[in-house]
Amino acid sequence: MEKSTITLTRKIQLLIDVPFDEKKEMWERLYRYQNRCFRAANFIVSHLYVQEMIKDFFYFTEEIQYKLADVNKNEMGIFTRSKTSTTARMVCDRFKGEIPTDILGSLNNTIQSTFSKNKADYWQGVKSLQNYRRDIPIPLPVRCISKMKYDSQKKAFCFNMFAIPVKTYLGKDFSDKRLIMERLLKGEIKLCTSQIQLKSGKIYWLAVFEFEKEEHLLKPEIIAEASLSLEHPIVVKANNVRINIGSKEEFLYRRLAIQAKQKRIQTGITYSRSGKGAKRKQKALYKTENLESHYVSHRLHLYSRKLIDFCIQQKAGTLILKNQEDKIGIAKEQEFVLRNWSYYELQTKIKYKAEKAGIELIIG
Question: Which has the closest alpha carbon to 162: 1, 353, 31, 276?
Answer without folding.
Answer: 31
